[in-house]
Design goal:
alpha/beta, six-stranded parallel sheet, 9 helices, 6 strands
């Protein structure tokens, strides 16, 4: 699966979170295309549409500014997703998936029911879900990053892994999650030279795989007990 990450940020060079995410995507260069709108002087509509055709998963990635994305993403949407391209004929984006990676400067608790923002992120990002439905795409659960600069090193490592999964994991059920961890471990273990950061990530993957495996075993036992109880009833 090929993923296109469309990044909308007016100050990419100064963004800690965007540069962290870009570095996190680097090991997957064969699968992930990083497309920074700030580097484009003038949109080549045909080229942008070709990129969309060539990828199975499309990600809109941006910081939340006044409950919306920066202007460059709106301009891109208005310019590239023309009616002739998106709706006529065979609908080229139908069957693909659309995800949103959004960063905020305040804690996630403020976007919960009863929080200070008086709206959840799902509600704020609803227009992108509507775009996905209009284009016949599958809308993925949004990937939110809150107050990146305050995250601990462990939290950042966990974020790195979760972000990589969001970009590359085919489906998001539990079995696919475990399978993704196994695949990454095999790939990392086959590498002859790993940096210290890669070694830390490998250890983190191993720990998470162990946790997921134990959880999967527990769930299996619970399902078996429920079935036995239902059979006895």
């Amino acid at each position: 699966m090929k993923t296109l990450v469309i990044v909308s940020h007016p100050e990419m060079a100064n963004s800690l979170v965007q540069n962290f995410l870009k570095a996190s995507a680097m090991p997957f260069q064969d699968e992930v295309t990083w497309h920074d709108l700030a580097t484009i002087q003038q949109l080549d509509v045909a080229a942008e549409q070709a990129l969309l055709r060539d990828h199975e998963r499309i990600i809109f990635q941006f910081p939340l500014y006044w409950y919306a994305a920066p202007a460059s993403l709106k301009t891109w949407l208005d310019t590239v997703l023309t009616g002739e391209f998106a709706f006529s004929g065979r609908m080229p984006l139908q069957g693909k998936s659309l995800g949103v990676v959004v960063s905020t400067g305040i804690a996630g608790k403020h976007f919960q029911a009863g929080g200070s923002e008086q709206a959840t992120l799902s509600e704020i990002l609803r227009p992108y879900e509507l775009v996905a439905r209009k284009l016949g795409m599958t809308y993925l659960p949004p990937f939110a990053i809150h107050q990146f600069s305050y995250l601990t090193e462990t939290a950042r490592q966990l974020l790195l892994v979760d972000y990589q999964r969001y970009l590359t994991q085919t489906t998001f059920n539990f079995e696919q999650k475990v399978a993704w961890f196994e695949q990454q471990l095999r790939q990392r273990q086959s590498a002859a030279t790993d940096s210290e950061q890669q070694q830390q990530q490998l250890a983190l993957l191993a720990d998470q795989l162990t946790e997921q495996g134990e959880l999967l075993t527990d769930l299996g036992w619970q399902v078996q007990l429920i079935r036995q109880e239902e059979g006895e009833g």
